[in-house]
């Protein structure tokens, strides 16, 4: 199925979709104003080693992955809206606490809460888009647009933080907490408007999806294609997250000139490349199958890792150039992964499939620890050579993907109603 970018399709977005887009911009902007500098705060405040910082970050993310699948699967039964409200409140509480903690153990607990909220929010949002937009090409455009708005926020957030003098300050986590409090109010308005034009059930009736957790797991375990896809994307996320976490540690410990400006510039460059190229690349690659698009993105990811491995520590524009290549690959990869899952998932198991896909986050979870160990023992160049080697493995897994069997959904027990619930 080809991609289609037209203003007519944008006009098909329901009000709730626009709430998700606008909310993503402001919350991601405030989030990336402070979160990427957390490794710097831990290093400067507690003098932790790269491995210790990685362990703190990985511990939070690993716990969050397990809660993500359970929460997303339950949303097929009890509704997206309740869980989205709960997640929003959890964001507000966790970021408010993060602005106050003064011990390593406190950071571990609160960062775990933040990671759980993040791991719930992403699949819930993706599944909700599938619920409220019926036409596949409009749904793909909605997911691409969501990714665009997230990165627009990523572009504005770090630079705004530097401009306001907030970057690296613990108190700035309050800004993120306020942003999510406002998003909860926006969601309340959006869900009320959605009730006036429902595509799925939004009332408070009894849950209509009767798939038990056992049957859901049976379907997921029978889907070999999904399992290979999850493994490939776990590795992909592990590779990408080295730039998100370990690169910051590498630059910090190597005392790169103008460290905070360099980190902000890397984040800003990443987001700006995505913003400026996303829809152009989508248009250019519209006729390509999803897996072919992903393979092109992986080749760009491979080039970026080799570049990072070879770049001298003092060469500012070398780092920026590698991030440009990385960002082009990310622009193709990340939104296409969500679209891929959306097309693989049966309608009545959309939440479960997006929840299973949240296992990708194991890659993000293990990246700080794995990257920290490699940094402590072998250094930055070895880290990125390792990431390049793993990229070659991911490319191979995607080549064999279409040969793998999938379950016969018609032969498995079906729920009494195939309509997922948003409420």
UniProtKB/TrEMBL annotation:
User: Which stretches make up the Major facilitator superfamily (MFS) profile domain?
Assistant: 16-406
Q: Which Pfam families match?
A: MFS_1
Q: Which PROSITE patterns has this protein been placed in?
A: MFS (PS50850)
Which subcellular locations apply to this protein? Cell membrane
The record's annotation in InterPro entries points to:
MFS, MFS_dom, MFS_trans_sf, MFS_Transporters
Main location, first listed in the record:
membrane
The family database entries (PANTHER family) matched by this protein are listed as: MULTIDRUG RESISTANCE PROTEIN MDTH, RESISTANCE PROTEIN MDTM, PUTATIVE-RELATED-RELATED
Q: What is this protein called?
A: MFS transporter
Q: What is the species listed in this Swiss-Prot or TrEMBL entry? A: Shewanella dokdonensis
